[in-house]
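User: Okay, second chain of the day. Same drill as before: sequence in, structure tokens out.
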Amino acid sequence: MSQPAALGFRAHSGWAVVVAVTASPVNGVVLARRRIEIAYAGIPGSKQPFHAVAALDDLSAAEVLIHQRRESSTELATRAVREVIAELAKAGHAVACSSIILAAGRPLPNLAAILKSHALIHTAEGEFFRDVLQRANEDCGLPVMKLRARDVWDRGSETFSVPSAALQKQIVQVGRAIGPPWREDHQLASLAAWIALAEIVVR
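Assistant: Same drill. Structure tokens below.
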């Protein structure tokens, strides 16, 4: 096997960006990048489960539906993660860990309170799919690091002893070298993966 690899994820409603890396951002290699689907398009409410249950009068029914959507999304996400791991294994890279980009990271209230607030519904759905990704990675046997988006550059600067501005330029240059797409999702996911690799595996 070649150097160990790490996966970085940034979730959206029903899909996520995943970037696989090895080495470090200073001399890093991007092994793979793709969009993965983490919600079944054919299942009603799968992409926005909290929106789907917002109009229900029965809270128990809402909880059951959200649980069912979490189970189906986790199944789909686990399959996608396994496919990435298998693809990298064929190229000689063993995936050692993963990292997931978080939002604010503040705890949510109970379901009843969430469903009374449209803003909290959106927040809950973001947390829902990040939780799905964590479950999927753990199902694949990967240790998972979670990093808030606003903390990634500073954490990377600390981890690799590179000023944040210089690190951002380096990550942008990585994208130029491999070509598009290399949006914010890819930049944050790749750096999060390199941080996980350095802090979980190398150390």
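Residues 102 and 151 are 10 Å apart (CA to CA).

User: Thanks, on to the next one.
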